[in-house]
Design goal:
The complex is a heterotrimer of chains A (about 325), B (about 525) and C (about 290). Chain A has 13 helices and no strands. Chain A is an all-alpha fold. Chain B starts with 5 loop residues before the first helix and ends with a strand. Chain B has 3 domains: about 160 residues, Periplasmic binding protein-like II (D-Maltodextrin-Binding Protein, domain 2), CATH 3.40.190.10; about 120 residues, Dipeptide-binding Protein, domain 1; about 220 residues, Roll (Dipeptide-binding Protein, domain 3), CATH 3.10.105. In chain B, helix 5 packs parallel to helix 6. Classes of the chains: A mainly alpha (about 325), B alpha+beta (about 525), C mainly alpha (about 290). At the A-B interface, helix 2, helix 3, helix 5, helix 7 and helix 8 of A face helix 1, helix 5, helix 11 and strand 20 of B.
Chain lengths: ~325, ~525, ~290
């Protein structure tokens, strides 16, 4: 490994670590302030979350207040929470009394499953469409692709989800409409997210494939007499990857945002679902941990993408070798 | 990414199609051959703690309460085989069966049951915390409650899900970490907050239930639940909204079941409020409500329009002879005019220049509440009363009751949280006020009648007391009834003997069986 | 929320990552842009004039719930007997006004910060960059959700602030990158040698370069905002019934999709046309 590479890797790590720390602090304080600012009495809210509307009353709220120390000052509560956070102690959910780490871990897994499945489907779908369109720029398929890209771009994910439910679940009875846990209930939410971003992936794939195919490098390879397939795999694929991977990173980030809606629509247990509930029930520890997990996920994906680009792009390496 | 060739493209598409086909194929077989009774409902399972569990483990018959109730709402033996009182209802003894076993194989001992009950009595949210319990003593063949005051409704309180008996191994450091009950079904898997799976408990002391496995799934959106019902992804689906019910009605193979619940959708009124303190204003508000129209439009059933506070499902408390609440906007305007409220040029009622403007607090947990709130708003605007609707968290109603800022609160009051409605009615009309009952309203006659009922009167006396309470409430309107409540479920044809419990205590899954094919 | 908000990850060349956002060629109005603009004008007119002429969108007539379309009520009535067309007009106005406000605020703030960052460099640049790094890593929907939750009374202020807050970063990053190039160009150096002053540089050199970028971002930003507000309406955060909002109307209409399709088709169509036309407003994309 050359010095240049090492320096590059170090700079990526430094930058992302800084970002991660900044995000953690910002999220914690923001969540805390927001929950503080929410109107209404937190003890009553939490009691309602725990016991339901039939049993929440002055007595159960008073018991909650005493148990959770809600009469401490705001600064004291924030300080205690940050102190616990440094020791990696996230505490217990105020509503379910279960350890926050276990609870958020469970939701994180749900979100990751959904995101990974969606990204997989999107790559297959968008990549395929893009490559097909790139074969004859300006042809019928290419125009259809442009229309598809515009169509899915203009549809919000919840509408797409509703349409897919109506089509696949109600009319054809192929897939379960909602649910969580088994593989078949993953398909519809993943497909909803995937269709949403497949348009942009198709677009980028198409443009880069065309660019790369027309590039001097590839033209030269052709004149060298390399077969069409070898050219495609060795040159086009690799160079397309350099452009696509960071793009996929950006898409994964957008996906993670999209999951909130899709999770709510399909009753899929993930971080978005946890967030909405925690805001509603004033479950500060879960809210903070879920928000942290989401933000950290974004930073983590960006880091992975940075490294993937370093690995895929031959240019820095060549420079390093030459130096 | 696949190879960028024609074959590659074809393969990619084929894989995607095959994957989705495989999944759907799997689901199909599961749908027809499943030996699992699949239940879906709107509420999530928040916790394993009995008081915070919303009764899911009692409904799935995993845990048992000492006392149970039948389809008429009468008390029946639960985990306890019998009970008796002594010392003028200051001491109650509940006998436990000899052969009962928890799901972990340990016997149901008086010590274990007493420990669970102690935990419930310490939980402020449990109705048992309101009973004058001095101590709970394990005795030879059961448990004894020593009370500091006579308490005739103790057996009814012990039907509440927060008082269920758990095995000692369920607890760890004061928290319930595992639900080990003594009912006909045992837990296979709990995935908070959305799913519970249970299977038949082979050592159950009673008759073996017909259904082997049951799963419950929480699904928040009503339209999603309706889809599950009509596409047979669940066998029993609770809590459908009107549009979903219509779709179920139009689908073959699934039917709607429903039962009138002991719940009333009502307006809580701050009787100390400068405007609402005048009984004529309360009566006028009641007269202005087009209850039949609201029930028809919001609940899609005219018959649910309330004619009095307590619904017909509470047979002893519902007075058939009572003058029903009417819709008469003109009479309402007259009453308000009598109380000094005159319309200005825009139609808004004013008294000494101040407009008649009130805030109505409600919450979205039950979707019909915000809908009814907007309907009430429209009804009252017709007589010149301006209502501002505040849709917020359910806890705001008790919170605003406590700080006195509540004006009108719209909610669904369950009058049989425990099997005897008297417990809830007594609380509702407590002279000092109650979070989910009257606010700054007291009436000597009603207080006396409630006291009389709590001291085990004769049947005739009891009837007289009840009539007095119900009639005063109808006249004074400290709580303005709006509509009654119907619980519904879409039930698939492959399920037989499914019955909705009138008290929402249990789903009676042990009595359900598969329909003959 | 699906708009590619980040020109990130890594500093890989923004233009390549987002060809559709930054692509920029001729300023000629193609037929499709004219079409998109005209449709937008029609929808905007409906959103501005409609609420003035149509009845109150919150007025219920419970006896007429789910009435099908008639000449008097071209879009029928919803499950409370409210006029769907009146609600649609109010919802359209809300979406357009809120989106325009957010985009305007984000544009001004982001562009100013981006130019300042490139112009002054040093600690100004470092501070703004640090701030944008943190904001970029925060999922936009998370921030908007938290802000929207604050508006328990259904007020729109917090929603506006939240949306503007997550959007300005995009302008900042693009403007900062482009301004850096422009300010380092020989033309600007010559201008500063001639002491033509900062106003001249801004007007003659920076703005012509930035304008196409910023307008492209703005039309995308409108789409993001409209989608974000409808998404929040759909998950019932921030906006409260009976306020009419496109996403909320879709949610309310969906259960009746087969018995009263007029309830959901109308808001879906307006939502789709709005986003499609704002996308169509962008200039010609990368040509091959």
């Amino acid at each position: 490994m050359s010095d240049t590479r090492r320096r590059l890797i170090a700079s990526v790590l430094l930058r992302r670590t800084g970002q991660g720390l900044g995000v953690a602090l910002a999220v914690s304080v923001l969540c805390f302030l927001v929950v503080r600012q929410l109107p209404g009495d937190a003890a009553y809210r939490i009691a309602a979350g725990r016991y339901g509307d039939d049993l929440v009353n002055a007595e159960s709220a008073a018991a909650v207040r005493a148990e959770l120390g809600l009469d401490r000052s705001a600064w004291q509560q924030l300080g205690d929470w940050l102190l616990d956070l440094v020791q990696l102690d996230f505490g217990r959910s105020l509503v379910s009394s279960r350890p926050v780490l276990a609870e958020v871990g469970y939701y994180l897994l749900g979100t990751l499953q959904l995101t990974a499945a969606a990204l997989g489907i999107a790559i297959v779908l968008g990549g395929t469409i893009g490559v097909v369109a790139a074969r004859r720029p300006g042809g019928v398929l290419d125009r259809l692709t442009t229309a598809w890209v515009a169509l899915v771009r203009a549809l919000p994910p919840f509408l797409l989800g509703l349409l897919l439910i109506l089509l696949l679940s109600v009319h054809f009875g192929l897939l379960p409409a909602v649910g969580h846990g088994n593989s078949s209930s993953l398909v519809l939410p993943a497909l909803t997210l995937a269709v949403g971003i497949s348009g942009l992936i198709a677009r980028v794939t198409r443009d880069t494939v065309i660019d790369v195919t027309n590039s001097e490098q590839v033209q030269f390879a052709r004149t060298k007499g390399l077969g069409e397939r070898v050219v495609l795999v060795r040159h086009v694929l690799r160079n397309t990857g350099v452009v696509l991977v960071p793009y996929l990173g950006a898409q994964a980030v957008i996906l993670i945002e999209g999951v909130v809606v899709v999770e709510s629509l399909f009753a899929w247990q993930g971080l978005g679902h946890a967030l909405v509930h925690a805001v509603f029930w004033r479950d500060v520890p879960v809210l903070q941990a879920a928000a942290l997990a989401l933000a950290r996920l974004v930073v983590a994906i960006n880091t992975v993408v940075d490294f993937a680009v370093l690995g895929l792009d031959p240019r820095p390496r060549r420079k390093g070798v030459l130096a | 990414m696949g190879r960028f060739t024609r074959t590659g493209v074809a393969m990619g598409l084929a894989t995607a199609l095959a994957a989705s086909a495989a999944c759907s194929g799997g689901e199909r077989t599961e749908r027809s051959d499943s030996n699992t009774l699949r239940i879906a409902g709107p509420f999530e399972v928040h916790s394993l703690e009995p008081a915070a569990s919303d009764g899911f483990f009692t409904r799935l018959q995993v845990v048992e309460t000492l006392v149970s109730s039948d389809m008429r709402g009468e008390l029946t033996p639960g985990l306890a085989t019998s009970w008796s009182d002594a010392k003028g209802m200051r001491s109650w003894t509940f006998e436990l069966p000899e052969d009962a076993e928890f799901h972990d194989g340990t016997p149901v001992t008086p010590d274990a049951v007493a420990a669970s009950l102690e935990a419930a009595a310490d939980e402020a949210a449990s109705p048992l915390a309101d009973a004058p319990v001095r101590r709970i003593v394990p005795v030879d063949s059961g448990v004894r409650f020593d009370l500091s005051a006579p308490y005739p409704t103790l057996p009814a309180v012990l039907t509440h899900y927060s008082t269920a008996a758990l095995a000692p191994a369920s607890y760890d450091d004061g928290h319930v970490t595992e639900v080990i009950g003594s009912g006909p079904y045992e837990i296979d898997r709990v995935e908070l907050p959305a799913s519970i799976e249970v299977s038949r408990f082979d050592e159950w002391r009673g008759d073996q239930p017909a259904i082997e496995k049951i799963s419950f799934q929480a699904v928040g959106r009503a339209e999603s639940r309706a889809l599950m019902a009509v596409s047979f992804q669940a066998d029993v689906v609770f809590g459908l909204e009107p549009a979903g019910r219509e779709r179920v009605a139009a689908t073959n193979g699934v039917a709607m079941e429903s039962s009138l619940q002991p719940r009333t959708l009502l307006l809580k009124v701050n009787a100390d409020h400068p405007v609402l303190g005048d009984v004529r204003v309360r009566q006028a508000l009641s007269l202005a409500l087009d209850r039949a129209g609201m029930a028809d439009a919001v609940l899609r059933e005219k018959e649910l329009a309330a004619t009095q506070l307590l619904p017909p499902s509470l047979r002893t408390w519902h007075e058939d002879g009572l003058e029903p609440l009417e819709h008469d906007p003109d009479a309402a305007r007259d009453l308000l005019a009598e109380a000094g409220w005159k319309p200005d040029e825009s139609g808004t009622l004013r008294k000494d220049g101040t407009p008649l403007r009130l805030t109505l607090t409600t919450y979205p947990d039950r979707p019909e509440l915000p809908a009814l709130a907007t309907a009430i708003q429209a009804s009252l605007r017709e007589i010149g009363v301006e209502i501002e609707v505040d849709v917020t968290n359910s806890s705001e109603i008790p919170a605003r009751h406590q700080d006195g800022s509540l004006e009108l609160g719209l909610f669904a009051r369950h009058f049989a949280l425990v099997a005897d409605p008297l417990v809830t009615v007594a609380e509702t009309f407590a002279p000092q006020g109650e979070d989910w009952g009257v606010m700054n309203w007291r009436d000597g006659e009603v207080t006396k009648a409630v006291d009389g009922l709590l001291h085990s009167p004769s049947d005739d006396e009891a009837q007289e007391y009840r009539t007095r309470i119900v009639e005063t409430a109808q006249q004074e309107l400290p709580l303005i009834p709006v509509a009654w409540y119907r619980m519904n479920a879409a039930v698939s044809d492959r399920v037989a003997n499914f019955e909705l419990d009138p008290l929402e205590r249990t789903w009676r899954v042990a009595d359900v069986s598969w329909a003959e094919q | 929320m699906r708009t590619a908000r980040r020109s990130e990850p890594s500093d890989v060349n923004t233009a390549l990552v987002r060809p559709d956002a930054i692509a920029e060629t001729s300023g000629r109005w193609s037929a499709s842009r004219v079409l998109a603009a005209s449709v937008l004008v029609v929808i905007a007119a409906f959103g501005i004039i409609g609420p003035l002429m149509l009845p109150d969108p919150a007025t219920q007539d419970l006896s007429r719930f789910l009435e099908p379309p008639t000449w008097a009520e071209p879009l029928g009535r919803d499950d409370y007997g409210r006029s769907v067309i009146a609600r649609l007009a109010h919802a359209t106005r809300l979406s357009l006004v809120l989106a325009a406000l957010c985009v305007g605020t984000a544009l001004v703030l982001g562009t100013a910060a981006g130019i300042a960052s490139a112009w002054f460099g040093g600690w100004v640049d470092a501070a703004l960059r640090g701030l944008s790094e943190v904001l970029v890593a925060l999922p936009a929907l998370l921030v908007v959700l938290l802000f929207a939750a604050l508006a328990a009374d259904g007020s729109l202020w917090t929603l506006y602030i939240g949306l503007a807050l997550v959007q300005w970063v995009e302008y900042f990053r693009v403007v900062r990158a482009r301004s850096g190039l422009v300010l380092g160009s020989p033309a600007v150096e010559a201008a500063s040698l001639l002491r033509l002053g900062p106003v001249h540089v801004l007007r003659r050199h920076l703005w012509p370069e930035l304008r196409p970028l910023v307008t492209t971002l703005a039309s995308l930003g409108m789409v993001t905002c409209i989608l974000a507000v409808s998404t929040l309406g759909f998950i019932k955060v921030g906006l409260k019934p009976p306020r009419a909002e496109l996403g909320l109307m879709v949610t309310e209409g969906f259960p009746f999709y087969d018995s009263a399709p007029w309830m959901s088709v109308a808001p879906v169509l307006v939502l789709f046309l709005l986003t499609a036309c704002f996308l169509g407003l962008r200039r010609t994309e990368v040509t091959t």
